[in-house]
Design a protein that fits this description.
The chain has eleven helices and no strands. The protein is mostly helical. The protein has one domain: Heme Oxygenase, Chain A.
Length: 245
């Protein structure tokens, strides 16, 4: 970039990144909501995605500690509550475990991370470290994939309910609150970025942050696709489906 964008031009550039790079375009996602995966492959997706879900509040806590005002901290603290809940058994992480349980996975095994793909661990850890180490502006910008999440949630829920007899609305209960939480979160993050990215360098950093986050989500599906859709590529020690119907 060599020219400073207006706030609205910056928003348009960010939305273009989502249109081109968000993981709703990935073949694994299309197979997931299109009914082309086995139960075992869906178990692998849910097990690996658990590490991402469980790491989100830890990621947000690293940013919360660096936010300079009570107003910003109150806003970001809500994200921790959304994911961790206010007591055991509540919040998004607990609801994701209901999903893995509904798919027939042992909760203790999922939480142990013993079956995690190495690439999943690498991608998620890279995201946590990015938010911890980059500027507050870049960290907030990396959350802007939530601008695009309602679309992928709608596709995922409707497609999985339609195409898999072992999937129920209760199994997918994680997603319903995200249809309201994600737009609220992304509206705040977008407004913050548009206000505080005031130089060409800052705007470029914001754009790069969103590209990085899209790459994290894409690489997680790449890893799943290679390990579980392409036969014979499951790494040693990673989850091996028993039910391949």
């Amino acid at each position: 970039m060599t020219t400073l964008l207006t706030p609205d031009e910056l928003e348009a550039a960010l939305r273009t990144i989502g249109a081109e790079r968000y993981h709703n375009l990935h073949p694994f996602h299309k197979a997931l909501h299109g009914g082309r995966l086995t139960r075992g492959q869906i178990q692998a997706w849910a097990l690996n995605r658990y590490y991402y879900q469980a790491s989100i509040p830890a990621k947000d806590a690293t940013l919360l500690a660096r936010l300079p005002t009570p107003e910003l901290r109150r806003e970001w603290r809500r994200r921790l509550i959304d994911h961790d809940g206010t007591e055991p058994g509540t919040g998004g992480v607990a609801r994701w475990l209901k999903l893995t349980e509904g798919l027939g996975l042992d909760t203790a095994y999922v939480q142990s991370l013993d079956g995690l793909l190495p690439g999943t661990r690498f991608a998620v850890d890279a995201y946590v470290h990015f938010v911890r180490d980059k500027s507050v502006l870049e960290a907030i910008a990396s959350s802007l994939t939530e601008l695009f999440s309602p679309t992928i949630i709608s596709e995922r829920v409707s497609g999985m309910l339609r195409n898999y007899s072992f999937i129920t609305e209760e199994t997918l209960a994680y997603f319903a609150p995200r249809l309201t939480q994600a737009p609220q979160d992304s509206a705040f993050a977008l407004a913050y970025v548009k206000e505080h990215a005031r130089t060409v360098e800052q705007q470029q950093a914001v754009i790069n942050a969103l590209k990085f986050k899209c790459g994290v989500l894409w690489s997680m599906l790449d890893e799943l696709d290679y390990a579980y859709v392409a036969p014979g590529h499951i790494p040693p020690g990673s989850f091996r489906p028993q039910d391949d119907r």
